[in-house]
Specification:
The structure holds two protein chains of two kinds.
Chain A lengths: L1 H6 L6 H38 L15 H11 L10 H16 L19 H9 L1 H12 L3 H32 L4 H7 L15 H16 L11 H4 L9 H26 L9 H4 L7 H20 L7 H29 L7 H38 L1
Helix pairs in contact in A: 2-3, 2-11, 2-13, 3-11, 4-6, 4-11, 6-7, 7-9, 7-14, 9-11, 9-14, 11-13
Chain B lengths: L4 H9 L6 E5 L11 E7 L2 E8 L7 H5 L8 H5 L6 H16 L5 H30 L3 H21 L8 E2 L2 E2 L7 H25 L2 H7 L7 H6 L4 H6 L6 H4 L25 H28 L18 E9 L2 E9 L8 E5 L1 H7 L1 H4 L5 H11 L3 H5 L1
Antiparallel strand pairs in B: 1-2, 2-3, 4-5, 6-7, 7-8
Helix pairs in contact in B: 4-5, 5-6, 5-12, 5-15, 6-7, 7-12, 12-15
Classes of the chains: A mainly alpha, B alpha+beta.
Chain lengths: 393, 388
């Protein structure tokens, strides 16, 4: 916002300049981020397809690339049906609120040193606050639909998000205590200079646990499997959006995938260095331009991939088991982490001596594991194709 | 008006806390067809569940009285449409018993192969959709992929993929094609090496799956017997009762296989987990039978599969009850012949799914809504067979 303001000609009246400096980044961000779900939906369908030994969309465009665009157009032109006895005002307002809750956090998510709409000094607090707006939307959708399944979905989602917000915020608190600031830019700045400085590896092995708690809790907040009970399709038909069709349904979809990006981007900012490159500064100094937005988006996309991976692998938990995980597993862990890390920050060292080494070793290990798994999967697939062909011959 | 705190709190106590009636089905994604369940719920907890059946009633038994004996076979296919081979086999066995026809070992072996392939295909759907009910989508598609391979074999043999009209009275509609044995072996190799281990790892061994199913819908063995549960549902309760072992037909006594029972590894015996584990293990046992049957078939001389098929099926006056082990349990046919007509006087079917559904209202008491879905799936009912 400040950058845009400075770039505008000084001859403009100041109120126009202020308005423009707010509008321009907003328009760019909303356009880019609304296009994101098209990509994520395509990715989800392709990834699930490969995991399930099928091809996924192949018909519309090369490799089905235009499939989601076709779907989006179809959804926009479909009739919006209002169920009998529905509260029409709330029924329309609900998807708007959900989308609002998904898009508002983008105000503070930093994509680069200067690529941030507003670096609020209460940044991370703001993210958790506005992200909860979508819960209100979900409850409204469930109530306004005049459908018992939708109501079940709404109630479940309320209970779930209220429960999982607590461990998520506790895990986030550890980061805030270490950095000493709520601003997302400050949090990113602490993690400069390569992946050994990421907060993920601070106080090894305490912060990795905090990351796992945060990741699990935010996964539940996105209503994604294995925590997708609010829209459990085998139990509640489609949960809170059972009665929605056409464009309003598309808005729920948009919000779900945008929210996935928001929590993944937040997790990357908090633990994975945000827009910082994972390599030491000396290694990348020769490169003419900084790729900071790409680093953030890349890290977020990796986490989104993990979301999808989990969704297509795990069964769904039951309501009471979900609450059990939140209150009896995640909450005690995160509370302990807050206490221990608080004590360490106050009286202990800034970091453990083995942090950086552990970070490098762990990241190389994870990377090697992923690469080896991918290679093994690829080779076994090739072998299977070959064997099937041989057996058929 | 001054608010009275006492009455205010009283009013809150008087909040409407009636039980809610939720209608699940007949258009619900996981009631496995057109089953309608009336749930009386208190929040997420189900106080009572009453199943309503009959949405798929097609007067099978009345139809059977109006067509000749072979003409009933296509109708039997449409009862348990997930496992048609088992239905027509049961009917053919009943009429053969009524008429005293002995089919050749060649036909018997092919019947066993078809029945066991059908059992694997049927359990693929049962366990796969069960995974989907629990929320795991991927195993379902892996299993359907392999069911397709079986359906390809069936299509190759008799031209149909779902409703085969294959087991005729006194024989079969078609002989197996050339190369069937080889194709069958290829399927078995893929099944043994890939599908079954994958299923056991990805679904049955999954911790969340165990948590969701191991203490849910527990049916003790005495309840199972008193409600006449059969097949995998009864074996899941721990009773090793299998007609293929107890009253062998079609030469099942020649094959070496085990009867799988639920052992209650993660909770009480007879839970949803046990019923599904039995199905998953049974698939491997079926593959074992298939290996032996395919070897036996390879050694046999080709014979005319329609050799014993009567020109005109007109049994003498009498009645017969014959039962066989269909994938979903004991499928019984009671046929009365009056000796004058070419159509049966009466055909009554004892359906395994119907009896399985009858225990539903007892098992479902006090469950969560999510468990209702898990319970329906674990009983593995096919509405076509319940309603007929």
């Amino acid at each position: 916002m400040d950058v845009v303001y400075r770039l505008l000609p000084e001859s403009l009246p100041s109120w126009i300049a202020v308005a423009l400096s707010a509008a321009i980044p907003a328009i760019i961000l909303i356009t880019l981020m609304a296009l994101g779900p098209i990509l994520y939906v395509y990715a989800e369908r392709k990834i699930s397809g490969f995991m399930q030994d099928r091809l996924g969309p192949m018909r519309v465009g090369p490799y089905g690339l235009l499939q989601t665009i076709a779907d989006a157009i179809k959804l926009m032109f479909k009739e919006a049906i209002y169920p009998a006895g529905a509260d029409k005002v709330l029924f329309i307002l609900a998807p708007c609120l959900v989308v609002l809750g998904a898009f508002l956090p983008f105000v503070v998510i930093p994509f680069g040193k200067y690529l941030v709409t507003a670096d609020l000094n209460v940044g991370i607090f703001y993210v958790t606050a506005v992200a909860s707006l979508s819960t209100v939307g979900l409850i409204m959708a469930g109530w306004a639909s005049n459908n018992k399944y939708a109501l079940f979905g709404a109630m479940r989602s309320a209970a779930q998000i209220v429960s999982y917000e607590i461990p998520a915020v506790m895990a986030l608190l550890t980061v805030v205590m270490i950095v000493g600031s709520l601003s997302l830019q400050d949090i990113v700045a602490v993690q400069a200079g390569g992946l050994q400085n990421w907060l993920l590896f601070r106080y090894f092995p305490l912060m990795p646990v905090a990351f796992l708690v945060f990741f699990t809790a935010t996964l539940a907040e996105c209503n994604r499997a294995p925590f997708d009970i609010p829209e459990a399709e085998s139990e509640l038909v489609a949960g809170f959006h059972t009665e929605y069709s056409g464009f309003f349904f598309a808005m729920f979809f948009l919000a779900e995938y945008t929210e996935m990006f928001v929590v993944s981007a937040t997790a990357s900012v908090l633990f994975l260095g945000g827009w910082q490159s994972p390599f030491p500064r000396e290694w990348t100094a020769w490169f003419p331009i900084r790729l900071s937005p790409l680093w953030l988006v890349g890290k977020a996309w990796f986490l989104i991939f993990v979301h999808m991976w989990l969704r297509w692998t795990l069964p769904r938990l039951r309501v009471d088991q979900l609450m059990h995980v939140a209150w009896k597993v995640l909450l005690p862990i995160s509370l302990t982490l807050v206490l221990v890390i608080g004590a360490l920050v106050t009286w202990g060292p800034n970091r453990f001596p083995w942090d950086q080494l552990a970070g490098v070793v762990l990241s190389i290990g994870i990377l090697a594991y992923l690469v080896l798994t991918a290679v093994a999967a690829w080779r076994s697939r090739a072998r299977r194709i070959k064997e099937t062909a041989e057996m058929a011959a | 008006m001054a608010t009275n705190l006492w009455t205010q709190s009283r009013q809150e106590d008087d909040l409407d806390t009636d039980e809610m009636i939720v209608n699940m089905g007949p258009q619900h994604p996981s009631t496995h067809g057109v089953l309608r369940i009336e749930l009386r719920t208190d929040g997420e907890v189900v106080k009572a569940a009453r199943p309503h059946i009959g949405y798929l009633h097609r007067c099978f038994e009345k139809h059977a009285e109006n067509v000749d004996y072979p003409g009933v076979i296509p109708y039997t296919d449409r009862m348990d449409y997930v496992a048609s081979m088992g239905n027509s086999l049961g009917y053919a066995l009943a009429v053969e018993k009524l008429m005293g026809i002995e089919v050749s070992p060649y036909v018997q072996t092919i019947r066993v192969i078809m029945a066991e392939l059908q059992r694997i295909a049927s359990h693929c759907v049962a366990v796969g959709t069960y995974g989907m009910d629990i929320g795991a989508f991927t195993p379902f598609l892996h299993l359907l992929r392999d069911r397709e391979k079986i359906l390809d074999l069936f299509e190759w043999t008799c031209g149909a993929r779902l409703l085969y009209n294959y087991n005729w009275v006194g024989g079969l509609s078609h002989d197996v094609p050339d190369g069937f044995v080889k194709a069958c072996r290829q399927f078995l190799r893929e099944f043994d090496r890939i599908t079954h281990p994958e299923l056991m790892d990805l679904l049955i061994g999954n911790k969340i799956f165990v948590k969701r199913t191991a203490r849910v819908g527990v049916c003790p063995v005495d309840l199972a017997i008193s409600y006449d549960l059969t097949g995998p549902n009864l074996r899941g309760s721990g009773l090793p009762r299998d007609l293929r072992k107890d009253e062998p037909y079609c030469g099942y006594e020649r094959f070496d296989f085990q009867v799988c029972v639920g052992k209650g590894e993660f909770g009480p015996v007879g839970s949803c987990f046990d019923r599904n584990l039995v199905r998953a293990l049974e698939m491997a046992e079926s593959a074992k039978i298939l290996h032996q049957a395919v070897d036996a078939l390879e050694k046999m001389e080709r014979a005319d599969v329609k050799e014993k098929v009567p020109k005109r099926v007109k049994p003498a006056k009498g009645e017969v009850y014959s039962r066989s082990e269909a994938p979903r349990g004991q499928l019984g046919y009671y046929i009365v012949a009056d000796g004058t007509a070419v159509n049966p006087y009466r055909v009554k079917v004892k359906s395994p799914c119907f009896t399985a559904m009858s225990v539903f209202h007892i098992l479902s008491k006090g469950m969560y809504i999510a468990d209702i879905i898990a319970l329906i799936g674990s009983l593995d009912v096919v509405l076509g067979e319940i309603d007929r």
